[in-house]
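Input record (one chain):
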Amino acid sequence: MRRYVLLLVLGCCCALTLSKAFDGYARVASVEPESGKVGDEASAKGENLDKSKICEIYLTDGKNDFKAVITEQTEAAIKFKIPKAQPGRYHLMLLTAKKDSMMEQPVVFTVEE
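The corresponding structure, as predicted from the sequence alone:
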């Protein structure tokens, strides 16, 4: 019984440590709308997205990156214009404010014809 309690306590400590390790990192959880045409506006929603952490947002297909113009930015959202890109599915990618890291997000946006 003690072994199981010890394992449970260790598991909780590891989970708490991991959650604290990623505290403060920018993360996009969704984009609205999920598709649009070049020039339309979309909103990436998540956390830690303010100007002190993120300076640019891109659409990427893994080979080509398309910089979007940010029109509004807060802690919880980045509004941006859809950049000129071929129709298709793209992940959102963030450039940190220090310009030392690009973080591809698990959120997909579809550029329509």
